[in-house]
Amino acid sequence: MSILIQVLSEPKNLQNLTISQWQTLLSQAKTSQLVGRLNYLMEIQNYTKPSYVKWHLESAYKIAEKQRKQAIVEFLEVPSTLKNSTSTLIFLKGAAYIAKNLPCSFGRTFSDIDVLVKKQELRKIETILKFSNWLKTNVDDYDEQYYRTWMHEIPPLYHETRGSVLDIHHNILPSTNKHQPSAAEFSTTSVLIEDIGSIDTLDDTDLCIHMAVHLFTESEFHHGLRDISDFDMLLRHFQKHDKRFVEKLIQRAQYLGLYDYARLAIRYSHIVMSTPLSSTTLESLQSNSLFVTFFQDFCFCNIFKPNHSSCRNWKMGLAEFLLYWRGHILRMPLKLLLPHLFRKTYKRTKDYFKQDKDLTQLP
Amino acid sequence: MLAQFTLPIGPFNFSIKTDNTAVLKNLSSLYGDYHFYNHSPFIDFPITITTRSLIRRFIKPQVDFFLDEFAPFKPLPKDQSFAMLEWGMNWCITTQAHQFLIFHAGTIEKNNKVIIMPAEQGSGKSTLTAAMVYSGWRLFSDELALISVTDELVYPCTRPINLKNDSINVIDNYVDNAVFSTIAKDTHKGTVALLKPPKASVERMFEPAPLHFIVFPKYVANIEAKLTPINQIDTFQQLIQHSFNYHILGEQGFHLIARLLQNVTCYQFEYSDFEQAKKLLSSLVD
Predict the structure, then answer these.
(1) What is the pLDDT of residue A172?
(2) Does A354 fall in a domain?
(3) How many pairs of residues across A and B have Cβ atoms under 8 Å apart?
(4) Do B87 and A356 count as a contact with CB atoms less than 8 A apart?
(5) Chain A: nearest CA to B188, how far in angstroms?
(6) CA-to-CA distance for A275 and A283, rounded, in angstroms?
(7) Count: domains in chain A
(8) Which whole number is the average pLDDT over B142-155?
(9) To pair with A126 at 20 to 30 A between CA atoms, which of A187, A267, A295, B154?
(10) pLDDT in tens, B29-57
(11) Cβ B168 vs Cβ B180: under 8 Å
(12) What is the ipTM of this complex?
């Protein structure tokens, strides 16, 4: 097991590490975007940070804190911009963790603020945002068309002066996906943010389910380890306040028709991050088919690792390959998938040969 | 085969792994006065400069910069590899070392008094820094002013000085026996060469010092060197523009600048002649 997973699943292991262990740990945490989380875990436990590693941990934490402040500004700005054009505005994912002040939000960096709105209000929302300095990111025509026809979200917008990036969802999953949970069935809760007012997010169980659905329909797992660690921290936190939380989560997922995703998230959170679960819950998590279980165990146990030379092996490569196809096949039927992938490969090849000229991003 | 060098540069430990002959050659000529580790300390920035793709070793050769296992930039042509290393090292510091408030500024010291000279790219700040540090000032950095958020001292990050275009000749003429890296032409910043830092500055790279003056330099042809005092509000605004991480430090950065400004004097500085510049800047600290 990688040293990063050892310390995430048992923060006690953060004490008394040697210099070379810290070197590996920090390097693994950097590739997994988890340095800020290590800092948080050490702070709440009051562990002494070795002097040579202290600033690395704290710098990552400062970046996350800056993003937290920025998200809080958007909790005020976005609803006030949209107050006359939307009946629902639900903050999801990273923004929701911040709104609810959940442990996994501390030290966690994210690239955009996700919100869920009603599809029929989308046009009005886009117009208002356009006139409030939210601009379109650079998306080419093919991608724009693809987003509009198949996706559950529109291309991201960014704010001209504040620099925030906004991801607007109008559904839970792409319309091509086999499962089509209705966004309206997810239950929301309102949270009071100090000095800002109340905003809407998903309630605790649905927040976890939404997260599970997204993680287990992915085809690329660049943040896979961070995400499963988020899920682990969510479960640990909610279980502390409600011993029956996982049971309720499973029931709720069954009701929404999303049991499969919740099951996978709970199972791999337990296997990878050692999330404490009752034995009855554990037994209920088996998949029916032995082959499916074998396939999933192979893929997910190998993908939820730091993408780092100290952990990479052929199994991880194979898991990446299999999950890439699994994700795409879940997302859309082959007759859409093949032309899409062909087009993407062509574009990537073309870009590779064009890249020589683009040197402007160096400091 | 990758060769590895591990060395402290001011408050950071760098390791540089490379199989690039130009990088090796320039490292040995410009970093000759540095103290290399012969054991393995904790490395803050493990850097690798190498060519990722086999094809690119032979056709239009390119190099990649890696921090840990991450390549933050697109590859550059091979003749820019040493310049890329230096730019990449700046990137490492400015994007991660938030224990410092970091300004884009030439930073020099004399009589335990630090002057930072924040300025835009191409304003001649590196040239001025180079001329000063080869006339008795101590080099902290030609690009980065690192001000600790804990003890509020300025920390040296003594490294080769980045000179561009005409400045290369100007400094070659001004400094006796100046040692330069190989010259990289046609970079995104024009022609670039790095100047070896003075030995005395390298030897004292672990000694921080307090900030005394903020000077915004501007080269104006044929002008008599002059210092014009500017007020704290204007300085504050200009400093924010020249900061790499003020937006990340937020409140902490705001209070730090506010406190610093109570004890420092700030000037606009116009100059054309190094001798006059030297005299005027020295008059501040003597």
Answers:
(1) 86
(2) no
(3) 65
(4) no
(5) 6
(6) 15
(7) 1
(8) 96
(9) A187
(10) 999 999 999 888 999 999 999 887 666 66
(11) yes
(12) 0.92
